[in-house]
Amino acid sequence: xxxxxxxxxxxxxxxxxxxxxxxxxxxxxxxxxxxxxxxxxxxxxxxxxxxxxxxxxxxxxxxxxxxxxxxxxxxxxxxxxxxxxxxxxxxxxxxxxxxxxxxxxxxxxxxxxxxxxxxxxxxxxxxxxxxxxxxxxxxxxxxxxxxxxxxxxxxxxxxxxxxxxxxxxxxxxxxxxxxxxxxxxxxxxxxxxxxxxxxxxxxxxxxxxxxxxxxxxxxxxxxxxxxxxxxxxxxxxxxxxxxxxxxxxxxxxxxxxxxxxxxxxxxxxxxxxxxxxxxxxxxxxxxxxxxxxxxxxxxxxxxxxxxxxxxxxxxxxxxxxxxxxx
Length: 326
Known about the structure:
The chain has 326 residues and is an alpha+beta fold. The chain contains nine helices and ten strands. The chain has helices at 12-24, 35-51, 98-108, 131-136, 143-154, 161-177, 190-203, 251-268, 304-315, and strands at residues 63-69, 72-78, 82-89, 116-123, 139-142, 207-211, 218-223, 231-235, 238-244, 284-290. The model has no long low-confidence stretch (mean pLDDT 92).
Protein backbone atom coordinates (compact mmCIF):
# COMPACT_ATOMS: atom_id res chain seq x y z
CA UNK A 1 0.00 0.00 0.00
CA UNK A 2 1.49 3.32 -1.03
CA UNK A 3 1.74 6.16 1.52
CA UNK A 4 -1.45 8.18 1.91
CA UNK A 5 -1.20 11.91 2.67
CA UNK A 6 -4.17 11.73 5.04
CA UNK A 7 -2.50 9.12 7.23
CA UNK A 8 -0.35 12.04 8.35
CA UNK A 9 -2.63 15.04 7.74
CA UNK A 10 -5.10 13.92 10.41
CA UNK A 11 -6.16 17.16 12.12
CA UNK A 12 -9.16 19.34 11.33
CA UNK A 13 -6.71 22.05 10.24
CA UNK A 14 -5.31 19.66 7.64
CA UNK A 15 -8.79 18.93 6.35
CA UNK A 16 -9.52 22.67 6.32
CA UNK A 17 -6.48 23.09 4.07
CA UNK A 18 -7.72 20.35 1.75
CA UNK A 19 -11.18 21.93 1.45
CA UNK A 20 -9.69 25.39 0.80
CA UNK A 21 -7.42 23.88 -1.86
CA UNK A 22 -10.36 22.09 -3.52
CA UNK A 23 -12.60 25.17 -3.49
CA UNK A 24 -9.87 27.34 -5.04
CA UNK A 25 -9.62 24.94 -7.98
CA UNK A 26 -13.14 26.08 -8.92
CA UNK A 27 -11.77 29.23 -10.56
CA UNK A 28 -11.96 29.01 -14.39
CA UNK A 29 -8.29 29.66 -15.14
CA UNK A 30 -7.34 26.38 -13.43
CA UNK A 31 -9.30 24.32 -15.94
CA UNK A 32 -6.29 24.66 -18.25
CA UNK A 33 -4.02 23.19 -15.59
CA UNK A 34 -6.22 20.22 -14.59
CA UNK A 35 -9.69 20.06 -16.14
CA UNK A 36 -10.78 17.06 -14.07
CA UNK A 37 -9.79 18.63 -10.76
CA UNK A 38 -11.46 21.89 -11.76
CA UNK A 39 -14.67 20.00 -12.58
CA UNK A 40 -14.70 18.32 -9.14
CA UNK A 41 -14.27 21.70 -7.45
CA UNK A 42 -17.06 23.28 -9.49
CA UNK A 43 -19.42 20.42 -8.68
CA UNK A 44 -18.56 20.67 -4.98
CA UNK A 45 -19.48 24.35 -5.03
CA UNK A 46 -22.62 23.71 -7.07
CA UNK A 47 -23.81 21.03 -4.66
CA UNK A 48 -23.50 23.46 -1.78
CA UNK A 49 -25.66 25.94 -3.69
CA UNK A 50 -28.18 23.19 -4.50
CA UNK A 51 -28.36 22.13 -0.85
CA UNK A 52 -29.38 25.68 0.00
CA UNK A 53 -31.83 25.76 -2.94
CA UNK A 54 -29.88 28.71 -4.25
CA UNK A 55 -29.44 29.08 -8.01
CA UNK A 56 -25.95 29.90 -9.20
CA UNK A 57 -26.99 31.28 -12.56
CA UNK A 58 -23.70 32.88 -13.47
CA UNK A 59 -20.41 31.13 -14.17
CA UNK A 60 -17.97 30.86 -11.27
CA UNK A 61 -15.36 33.52 -11.97
CA UNK A 62 -13.68 33.98 -8.60
CA UNK A 63 -13.22 31.96 -5.40
CA UNK A 64 -11.64 33.99 -2.65
CA UNK A 65 -10.60 31.95 0.38
CA UNK A 66 -10.58 33.25 3.96
CA UNK A 67 -9.35 31.00 6.76
CA UNK A 68 -10.01 31.44 10.48
CA UNK A 69 -11.84 34.74 9.97
CA UNK A 70 -13.28 35.42 13.45
CA UNK A 71 -12.41 31.76 14.27
CA UNK A 72 -14.62 30.42 11.46
CA UNK A 73 -12.95 27.41 9.83
CA UNK A 74 -13.39 28.30 6.15
CA UNK A 75 -14.99 31.11 4.18
CA UNK A 76 -15.12 30.98 0.39
CA UNK A 77 -16.37 34.12 -1.35
CA UNK A 78 -17.91 33.22 -4.72
CA UNK A 79 -18.00 35.96 -7.36
CA UNK A 80 -17.94 38.58 -4.56
CA UNK A 81 -21.67 37.84 -4.06
CA UNK A 82 -22.03 34.62 -2.07
CA UNK A 83 -20.04 33.38 0.90
CA UNK A 84 -19.75 29.67 1.65
CA UNK A 85 -19.20 29.23 5.37
CA UNK A 86 -17.81 25.79 6.27
CA UNK A 87 -17.67 24.52 9.82
CA UNK A 88 -15.42 21.48 9.55
CA UNK A 89 -15.98 18.76 12.14
CA UNK A 90 -13.77 15.73 11.69
CA UNK A 91 -14.01 13.90 15.01
CA UNK A 92 -15.72 16.60 17.10
CA UNK A 93 -19.21 18.13 17.03
CA UNK A 94 -20.76 21.58 17.37
CA UNK A 95 -21.06 23.20 20.79
CA UNK A 96 -22.04 26.40 22.62
CA UNK A 97 -24.28 27.77 19.85
CA UNK A 98 -21.18 28.30 17.72
CA UNK A 99 -23.10 27.67 14.48
CA UNK A 100 -25.62 30.44 15.11
CA UNK A 101 -22.85 32.71 16.32
CA UNK A 102 -20.80 32.27 13.14
CA UNK A 103 -23.76 33.11 10.90
CA UNK A 104 -24.48 36.19 13.00
CA UNK A 105 -20.84 37.27 12.60
CA UNK A 106 -21.05 36.96 8.82
CA UNK A 107 -24.25 39.01 8.76
CA UNK A 108 -22.90 41.75 11.02
CA UNK A 109 -19.21 42.18 10.15
CA UNK A 110 -18.57 45.03 7.66
CA UNK A 111 -16.24 42.82 5.62
CA UNK A 112 -18.89 40.12 5.05
CA UNK A 113 -22.37 41.49 5.76
CA UNK A 114 -23.13 42.27 2.11
CA UNK A 115 -22.61 38.63 0.98
CA UNK A 116 -25.33 35.98 0.76
CA UNK A 117 -24.32 33.34 3.35
CA UNK A 118 -24.40 29.62 2.53
CA UNK A 119 -23.46 27.80 5.78
CA UNK A 120 -22.19 24.21 5.53
CA UNK A 121 -21.51 21.66 8.26
CA UNK A 122 -18.84 19.32 6.92
CA UNK A 123 -18.73 16.03 8.81
CA UNK A 124 -16.81 12.88 7.87
CA UNK A 125 -17.62 10.75 10.93
CA UNK A 126 -20.98 10.29 12.69
CA UNK A 127 -22.79 12.14 15.44
CA UNK A 128 -26.01 11.67 17.36
CA UNK A 129 -28.14 14.46 15.91
CA UNK A 130 -28.00 17.50 13.69
CA UNK A 131 -30.76 19.60 15.23
CA UNK A 132 -28.46 22.58 15.69
CA UNK A 133 -27.86 22.69 11.93
CA UNK A 134 -31.52 23.28 11.11
CA UNK A 135 -31.82 25.95 13.78
CA UNK A 136 -28.77 27.82 12.46
CA UNK A 137 -29.54 27.41 8.73
CA UNK A 138 -26.67 25.04 7.90
CA UNK A 139 -26.70 22.25 5.34
CA UNK A 140 -24.90 18.99 6.05
CA UNK A 141 -22.21 17.79 3.66
CA UNK A 142 -21.07 14.43 4.95
CA UNK A 143 -18.63 11.65 4.19
CA UNK A 144 -21.02 9.74 1.94
CA UNK A 145 -21.74 12.82 -0.17
CA UNK A 146 -18.05 13.50 -0.69
CA UNK A 147 -17.34 9.86 -1.54
CA UNK A 148 -20.13 9.94 -4.13
CA UNK A 149 -18.76 13.16 -5.64
CA UNK A 150 -15.19 11.88 -5.89
CA UNK A 151 -16.14 8.39 -7.10
CA UNK A 152 -18.20 9.91 -9.89
CA UNK A 153 -15.09 11.56 -11.32
CA UNK A 154 -12.84 8.61 -10.54
CA UNK A 155 -14.86 6.55 -13.03
CA UNK A 156 -14.37 9.12 -15.78
CA UNK A 157 -10.76 10.26 -15.59
CA UNK A 158 -7.50 9.44 -13.79
CA UNK A 159 -7.72 11.28 -10.49
CA UNK A 160 -5.44 13.86 -9.02
CA UNK A 161 -3.26 12.06 -6.47
CA UNK A 162 -4.47 14.24 -3.57
CA UNK A 163 -8.12 13.58 -4.45
CA UNK A 164 -7.33 9.90 -4.81
CA UNK A 165 -5.74 9.86 -1.36
CA UNK A 166 -8.69 11.71 0.14
CA UNK A 167 -11.23 9.38 -1.46
CA UNK A 168 -9.36 6.35 -0.17
CA UNK A 169 -9.13 7.99 3.27
CA UNK A 170 -12.91 8.53 3.37
CA UNK A 171 -13.71 5.03 2.10
CA UNK A 172 -11.39 3.50 4.67
CA UNK A 173 -13.08 5.59 7.36
CA UNK A 174 -16.48 4.45 6.08
CA UNK A 175 -15.31 0.85 6.31
CA UNK A 176 -14.15 1.38 9.90
CA UNK A 177 -17.49 2.88 10.93
CA UNK A 178 -19.36 -0.03 9.38
CA UNK A 179 -16.95 -2.60 10.82
CA UNK A 180 -19.48 -3.59 13.49
CA UNK A 181 -21.14 -5.59 10.67
CA UNK A 182 -17.96 -7.43 9.68
CA UNK A 183 -16.08 -7.90 12.96
CA UNK A 184 -16.97 -10.09 15.94
CA UNK A 185 -18.05 -7.96 18.89
CA UNK A 186 -14.88 -8.63 20.88
CA UNK A 187 -12.86 -7.03 18.07
CA UNK A 188 -14.88 -3.79 17.84
CA UNK A 189 -13.08 -0.45 18.09
CA UNK A 190 -14.31 3.10 18.69
CA UNK A 191 -15.42 3.43 15.06
CA UNK A 192 -17.38 0.16 15.28
CA UNK A 193 -19.34 1.50 18.25
CA UNK A 194 -20.13 4.70 16.37
CA UNK A 195 -21.48 2.70 13.44
CA UNK A 196 -23.53 0.46 15.72
CA UNK A 197 -25.01 3.40 17.62
CA UNK A 198 -25.75 5.26 14.39
CA UNK A 199 -27.84 2.36 13.08
CA UNK A 200 -29.34 1.57 16.50
CA UNK A 201 -30.63 5.13 16.72
CA UNK A 202 -32.69 4.58 13.56
CA UNK A 203 -34.66 1.90 15.42
CA UNK A 204 -34.65 3.12 19.03
CA UNK A 205 -34.84 6.85 19.57
CA UNK A 206 -32.13 8.12 21.91
CA UNK A 207 -28.84 9.98 21.98
CA UNK A 208 -25.23 8.87 21.83
CA UNK A 209 -21.72 10.25 21.93
CA UNK A 210 -18.32 10.04 23.54
CA UNK A 211 -18.31 10.18 27.34
CA UNK A 212 -15.01 11.29 28.84
CA UNK A 213 -14.00 10.08 32.29
CA UNK A 214 -10.93 9.45 34.42
CA UNK A 215 -10.61 5.88 33.13
CA UNK A 216 -10.22 7.02 29.53
CA UNK A 217 -13.81 7.41 28.38
CA UNK A 218 -16.18 5.33 26.26
CA UNK A 219 -18.82 5.58 23.56
CA UNK A 220 -22.25 5.67 25.18
CA UNK A 221 -25.88 5.55 24.11
CA UNK A 222 -28.57 6.73 26.52
CA UNK A 223 -32.33 6.98 26.93
CA UNK A 224 -33.84 9.45 29.42
CA UNK A 225 -37.40 10.28 30.38
CA UNK A 226 -38.20 13.21 32.67
CA UNK A 227 -41.00 11.23 34.30
CA UNK A 228 -38.60 8.56 35.58
CA UNK A 229 -35.95 8.81 38.28
CA UNK A 230 -33.54 6.55 36.39
CA UNK A 231 -32.18 6.26 32.86
CA UNK A 232 -30.51 3.56 30.78
CA UNK A 233 -27.09 3.98 29.25
CA UNK A 234 -25.10 1.62 27.08
CA UNK A 235 -21.44 1.83 27.94
CA UNK A 236 -20.33 -0.11 24.90
CA UNK A 237 -20.84 -3.81 25.79
CA UNK A 238 -22.57 -3.17 29.14
CA UNK A 239 -26.09 -1.84 29.73
CA UNK A 240 -26.22 0.28 32.88
CA UNK A 241 -29.12 1.72 34.83
CA UNK A 242 -28.15 5.06 36.30
CA UNK A 243 -29.55 7.85 38.43
CA UNK A 244 -28.63 11.44 39.09
CA UNK A 245 -28.49 12.47 42.72
CA UNK A 246 -31.22 14.61 44.26
CA UNK A 247 -29.65 17.62 46.01
CA UNK A 248 -32.44 17.58 48.60
CA UNK A 249 -31.85 13.98 49.66
CA UNK A 250 -29.01 11.99 51.16
CA UNK A 251 -27.26 10.32 48.16
CA UNK A 252 -27.06 6.84 49.71
CA UNK A 253 -30.66 6.90 50.94
CA UNK A 254 -31.91 8.11 47.55
CA UNK A 255 -29.77 5.57 45.68
CA UNK A 256 -31.02 2.66 47.78
CA UNK A 257 -34.63 3.77 47.43
CA UNK A 258 -34.46 3.95 43.63
CA UNK A 259 -32.55 0.66 43.48
CA UNK A 260 -35.33 -1.07 45.37
CA UNK A 261 -37.96 0.34 43.00
CA UNK A 262 -35.97 -0.52 39.88
CA UNK A 263 -35.10 -4.07 40.92
CA UNK A 264 -38.71 -4.70 41.90
CA UNK A 265 -39.99 -3.47 38.53
CA UNK A 266 -37.44 -5.39 36.46
CA UNK A 267 -37.94 -8.61 38.44
CA UNK A 268 -41.74 -8.43 38.06
CA UNK A 269 -41.26 -8.12 34.29
CA UNK A 270 -38.81 -11.05 34.05
CA UNK A 271 -35.92 -8.77 33.15
CA UNK A 272 -32.53 -9.75 34.52
CA UNK A 273 -30.21 -7.12 35.99
CA UNK A 274 -27.52 -7.26 38.64
CA UNK A 275 -25.91 -4.86 41.08
CA UNK A 276 -22.66 -3.25 39.95
CA UNK A 277 -19.52 -4.72 41.48
CA UNK A 278 -18.97 -1.48 43.38
CA UNK A 279 -21.73 0.89 44.51
CA UNK A 280 -20.51 4.47 44.47
CA UNK A 281 -22.18 7.69 45.49
CA UNK A 282 -21.88 10.90 43.50
CA UNK A 283 -23.68 13.20 41.13
CA UNK A 284 -24.32 10.27 38.76
CA UNK A 285 -24.59 6.73 40.11
CA UNK A 286 -24.85 3.29 38.51
CA UNK A 287 -27.43 1.24 40.40
CA UNK A 288 -27.74 -1.82 38.14
CA UNK A 289 -26.31 -3.34 35.00
CA UNK A 290 -26.67 -6.05 32.40
CA UNK A 291 -23.56 -7.41 30.74
CA UNK A 292 -25.20 -9.50 28.03
CA UNK A 293 -27.63 -7.23 26.20
CA UNK A 294 -25.80 -7.74 22.89
CA UNK A 295 -27.13 -10.70 20.93
CA UNK A 296 -24.59 -12.49 18.78
CA UNK A 297 -24.29 -15.47 16.48
CA UNK A 298 -22.37 -18.59 17.47
CA UNK A 299 -19.20 -17.10 15.99
CA UNK A 300 -19.49 -13.81 17.89
CA UNK A 301 -20.95 -11.50 15.24
CA UNK A 302 -23.72 -9.09 16.19
CA UNK A 303 -27.34 -10.01 15.54
CA UNK A 304 -28.69 -6.46 15.26
CA UNK A 305 -32.39 -7.29 15.13
CA UNK A 306 -32.19 -9.64 18.11
CA UNK A 307 -30.23 -7.00 20.05
CA UNK A 308 -32.87 -4.38 19.28
CA UNK A 309 -35.61 -6.74 20.47
CA UNK A 310 -33.72 -7.37 23.70
CA UNK A 311 -33.21 -3.66 24.32
CA UNK A 312 -36.85 -2.90 23.64
CA UNK A 313 -37.83 -5.10 26.58
CA UNK A 314 -35.76 -2.95 28.93
CA UNK A 315 -36.74 0.36 27.39
CA UNK A 316 -40.54 0.03 27.61
CA UNK A 317 -40.93 2.70 30.37
CA UNK A 318 -38.45 5.09 28.73
CA UNK A 319 -39.51 5.27 25.10
CA UNK A 320 -43.24 6.13 24.78
CA UNK A 321 -43.41 9.85 25.59
CA UNK A 322 -41.49 12.87 26.83
CA UNK A 323 -38.05 11.61 25.93
CA UNK A 324 -35.26 13.85 27.12
CA UNK A 325 -32.22 13.42 24.82
CA UNK A 326 -29.98 16.01 26.46
